[in-house]
Amino acid sequence: MAKKKEEAAVKPAATMLIFQAPDLPTPKVNPRSGKLASDEQPAAEPKTKTRTPREKPQRQPKEKPEEAEKEVGSTRVEAKRQRRRDSRDNSRRRSSVTESEFLARRESVERTMVVREKDSRIQIGVLEDGMLVEHYVAESQGGSLIGNVYLGKVQNVLPSMEAAFVDIGRGRNAVLYSGEVDWEAAETGNQPRRIELALKSGDQVLVQVTKDPVGQKGARLTSQVSLPGRFLVYVPGGNMSGISRKLPEGERQRLKQILKNTLPEDAGVIVRTAAEGASEEQLIHDVERLQAQWESINSKVQKGKAPLLLHSEPDLLVKIIRDVFNEDFQKLVVSGDQALATISEYLESVAPDLVERLSAYTDSEDIFDHYRIGDQIVKALDRKVYLPSGGSLVIDRTEAMTVVDVNTGKFIGSGGNLEETVTKNNLEAAEELVRQLRLRDIGGIVVVDFIDMIQESNQEMVRRRLLECLSRDRTKNQVGEVTSLGLVQMTRKKIGVGLLETFGETCDCCQGRGVVIHEEPRFKMPEQSQKDKPGKKKGKDKQPEVVKKVVTPEQADAFKNVVNKIAQAAHHDEVEVKEPEGKTEILNAVLDSLPEPTPKAKPKRRRASSAAKAPQGEAGSENS
Predict the structure, then answer these.
(1) pTM to 2 decimals?
(2) Per-residue model confidence as pLDDT tens digits over 89-117
(3) Is 584 helix (H, G, I), strand (E, B) or coil?
(4) Could you give the CA distance from residue 460 to residue 426 in angstroms, rounded to a whole number?
(5) What are phi and psi of 517, to 5 degrees?
(6) Beta strand 329-335 pairing with 358-360
(7) Among 2, 169, 210, 394, which residue carries the largest CB count within 10 Å?
């Protein structure tokens, strides 16, 4: 019984748990129909017209025009920092040159320098495997200002352009951008690096020319002076040193140890490629000579008054020998006694180990004709360049950039598929392109339109070939990636005038545009073919052929006798005969008395059908 009571006590608790449900809303039921109110559709209410007041649109405030973000400092300085960071990242990716690669690069190309002195003009050509790759003219480039150091006077400062115009005593004012200002020497304190805070009108500033004036643009200046020598470049006031990356790693380490002991603390140097194998005494002598030049410049600054020339670079001949001629050249051939003496004197004092490579040209034939330099210059002045395989390059220069188009031309390949043919043509075009850039001295932005390649490996192969050929170019350059359109964008530093400006001048008629503009519209009529000419059309009336009357001497004598007989008979018969008056009437009477010549009949053209029917007719007559 106790167990039953316990179960009865437990059951009500379980029942309570079962019927505990959440509170739900009770559905409403219509008492008339007995259906749920949610199931019945509501009756349509009568429509009543109600006027809703129109809401007036709120006037939105006028949007202010977008303004460019303003930098706190100088945008040119920031851009220069960005370029330095990019070049530093690229140099880290680049692997150092090994000794074997350095020697292979030197031995793979045979380099020769040719110098011609003629009519007080010096021309220098650099040949690689017999092909002209660089050309210099002393007469046109002898007045170059690059490398000269001046004490200039600031004429005007433009904060919005971040530039200052400086008078250096050369007529047109030169321009100094904020990115080329030596901010360590300019005492601006904690203020931002703005050019209007560093320079003012009337200030004297020490500057060096980095680019010659071109067209309407003046010379470009920098206040970071550097003095070039044979083995290194001396940078007064610099706190960093660098060594050319074209040297092998072992040679770079040797030169670095030498510079630690010999380099002054208040200057920096940049070791050039020509310093390969140079002894410690040669490097010390070069540093001391350049240091003496800098002290001489400082003494002139304290005594002189702007504008004033403080230091000028040597003439072009010595400058090219100093900067270009090194161990990579097998020989230096000179035509001209004065040029030979100048080069020999310079090499004996600076690089006596290269004197044995100097030789004089004594043949009667012109030295440029002997090495076929003149023919290559003429081809380089043309717009279209033909490749050995049959392709071509079309080089067009514009105000902003130089555009190069690559064409296959007559090159059809030697088997394989289209991708292989296009890749071979592009590889050959890349080599010739670099040669044309160096020979024509093209600078600025260069866009190359290679023929489209599908595979990325082929695109990278063409780009590597382009970089390999550009490693021989001593002018600073930078190459971008191949775009989706097959274009390669690159930049090359523009220093002096190009080959086209040296040998050519702007046309006075078209001002270099290549077209002549007229005041009235000019329409060209379409050329008419031989079939469309009016005289050749069928169905038109032909003009009657004029038959000329010809009088032979025999006919003239016979006519004369007839006239005499008629005159005598008329005289006896006293018949009045009117004689012709004048030579014209006599000639007309003679021509009228002559018989009319019959024109020759033209032979009729036989048709093929008539020619084929003729034998059948003859056969039929024979049978009959």
Answers:
(1) 0.64
(2) 655 554 455 555 555 555 578 899 999 99
(3) helix
(4) 11
(5) -90, 130
(6) parallel
(7) 210
